[in-house]
Amino acid sequence: MPVIGQSPQYSEQPLLEVRHLDVRFTTPEGEVKAVDDLEFSLVRGETLGVVGESGSGKTQVAHAMLGLLAENGRATGSVRFAGEEILNLPAKRLNRIRGAGMALVFQDPMTSLNPYLRIGPQLSEALMAHEPVSGRQAREAACSMLDAVHLAHPRACLRAYPHELSGGMRQRVMIAMALICRPRVLIADEPSTALDATVQARILELLSELKREFELAMLLITHDLGVVAGTCDRVLIMYGGRTMEEAAVDDIFYRSQHPYTRGLLGALPRLDAAGVSRMAAIPGQPPSLLEPQPGCPFEKRCDYRFEPCKHQRPPLENVSAGHRKACHHEKLP
Amino acid sequence: MSGSLLELRDVAVEYDAGGAILGRRRKLRAVDGVTFELDRGATLGIVGESGCGKSTLARAILGLVPLARGAVILNGEDLAALKRRALRARRKTVQLVFQDPLGSLDPRMTAGEIIAEPLGTFYPALDKTQRTEQVRAMMGAVGLSPAQFNRYPHELSGGQCQRIGIARALIVEPELLVCDEPVSALDASIQAQIVNLLESLQASLGLAMLFIAHDLRIVRHLCDRVMVMYLGRVMEIAGSAELFARPRHPYTRALLDASPVPDPQRERARARIPLAGELPSAVDPPSGCVFRTRCPYAQDRCIREVPALRPVGAAFVACHFTEEIFNYSIA
Q1: ipTM for the complex?
Q2: DSSP run (H or E) holding B244
């Protein structure tokens, strides 16, 4: 069983392999590159946290993999699931992967459930769309899945409408819906962001438990490094569509070699800090994707910037085994 | 009469929950029995989850909802006793910063016009040059550049819009700033900028501040005192350092437990006791202690008897059994 914080062995073939992934959008103001040359892989039982602020491209990565990009969006590169190329597959073939291969939990549980349908039919529909089961079997599966996500009265819940449930309960329903086809990869896009603190803690706990129970690989997309600390094995930090740093969770928190990661860590409000000090804010504003920089996207806000940062794009290089960063500085002090 | 800036005495606010049963209208008591004082220049954090009444309380302090019971006293004057014109003049004393930075700004007005608007309301005698001068000075104080004077909100980032919201609140020189989740819609790197800005403005202007938030971590940075609310009632009030070091209410403890720690080793080591169950309906709250349905320590007495907010150590706590549950040796 994988232990949080220690990456599983890499000897096995990755379940998910992303290479040179670009996502572009055509907008009235010009072309926007939301994801720029992204590369990562995910093995069974592993949780990778994809961390970034709004506009960093983190959600578009998930959407590109599942063929959910908006109409003006276009993805290039390679996404292999269990060895098979799935990027830009026609919807029909992609539907075999969605659900049973990879499933997505959305951020907002209220707007991703159909308000006119009871929970039961929404859950069984998800299963029946992918597998040859009878309505009765699908209902039973829905009920046992609601039980697996610890909803107190699964049968009553099947008959409820989304508005009759609390935010936390709705998010449990969304997780049950994602898991009902027994996927191998679960992509959770800010699964706890819209929820209250105590509810958020329970949803994260649930995801960790289900990950072990169903032997899932998980991609946790979030803006909150605090959430990552307790749930992820590895972390990928994105900024302006690019990977800034990727490493095991402990390396990110204790041995980060990228100024942006360090900035994010410094800007975190903490309950565990000894005294109450001023928060170390990152100065400036996030970059505009409409005016891409030739150099490092973080250059304008970086305390460590020097000449090459402005003109040359820093390559993603190894710091140590399993730890990569895109920064011109060989070593940060 | 006390010398504090703001005083709430046993404040209750009710909303009509619709649907009459046997001819009696159902009431939702959003805030019930809140009492506290806020001195000039002091900061109080109000913390709790959705439905705890924290935003309703802010509306009550601003005089935007009628009180079902109790009184809001500002500078020694009971707001309910004031006539409309006098009330309007007092509004200058208390200003509000909203949660949604973009949604709370008029999209058809420029940054300069938005910040100047309250001056037109409260100081109609100012001429245009004087107004512009004040707006420019205020823009500088909140970290906006003069070049942004003629920008529209949609041309600016979330953090810059929130700076406009803060400038608009401060330009009439209020004594009390009420901030309702002012940073929760902002990105991490920008959040810290706005928190630091509020902190330095509060100190330099000697503002009193009510800071409403669900994020305990930010409240700890900004506030001298913290009030924890649950289902419309106060669970605990204490000095910030005291509350975070020695929570004395099971709900405070649950909130602290739920807050993620950005440290993987500590996260792995820590044992969480997650809060079970769902938030009860505010239309039909539990008898006795409202928190008892989710409290791991609840006993018979909690069903029968509403716990009073009473002094325990350096805090005020509404729990019958706090001494038994939290055995802090007296410092």
Answers
A1: 0.82
A2: helix B240-245
Query: Please, what are the domains in chain A?
Result: 11-101+184-268+279-293+317-328 (3.40.50.300), 110-180 (no CATH)
Residue with the larger pLDDT of the pair B189 and B75: B75
Both structure tokens of B19 = 């649907």
CB < 8 Å from B in window 296-325 of A: 301
User: Percent of chain B, pLDDT > 90?
Assistant: 67
- CB-CB: which of B158, B159, B218 is closest to A269? B218
Mutate: best of B55, B187, B211, B214, partner A, most A CBs <10 A: B187
Alpha carbon distance A135, B2 (integer Å) = 69
Pairing of the two strands B77-78 and B94-97: unpaired
Polymer length in residues for chain A? 333
How far apart CA B218 and CA B235 sit, in angstroms, is 19
Q: Is B244 near chain A, with CB under 8 Å?
A: yes
Q: Taking the mean position of all CA atoms in its chain, how far away is CA A227?
A: 12
Convert the pLDDT of each residue in B116-136 to its tens digit. Answer: 999 999 999 999 999 999 999
CA A267, A270, A273, A279 torsion-angle sign: positive
**Contact (CB<8Å) B160/A283:** no
pLDDT of residue B204: 93
Contact with chain A for residue B267, Cβ under 8 A:
yes
Residues of B in Cβ contact (< 8 Å) with A281: 189-190, 192-193, 195-196
Helix (H), strand (E) at residue A201:
helix A197-213
Mean pLDDT in runs of 10 for chain A (333 residues)?
A: 48 87 92 94 95 90 92 95 92 88 84 90 91 92 92 91 89 92 93 83 89 92 91 96 96 96 88 65 84 90 93 94 95 87
pLDDT of residue B171: 96
Separation of alpha carbons B146 and B149, rounded Å = 6
Contacts of A279 in chain B (CB under 8 A): 192, 195-196, 221
**A46: Cβ–Cβ under 8 A, 6 or more apart, which residues?**
A2, A7, A8, A217, A218, A233, A234
Q: How far apart are CA A280 and CA B323, in angstroms?
A: 38
By C-alpha distance, which of A278, A254, A265 is closest to B188? A265
Within 10 A of A96 (CB to CB), how many other CB atoms are there? 13
Of A24, A97, A27, nearest to A64 by C-alpha is: A24
* Contact call for B268 and A272, based on CB within 8 A: no
- Contact between B228 and B236 under an 8 Å Cβ cutoff? The reply is yes
Which residues numbered 219-278 in A keep a CB inside 8 Å of some CB on B?
Answer: 223-227, 229-230, 249-250, 253, 263-272, 276, 278
Please tell me the predicted confidence (pLDDT) of residue B112: 96
CA distance B98 to A260: 29
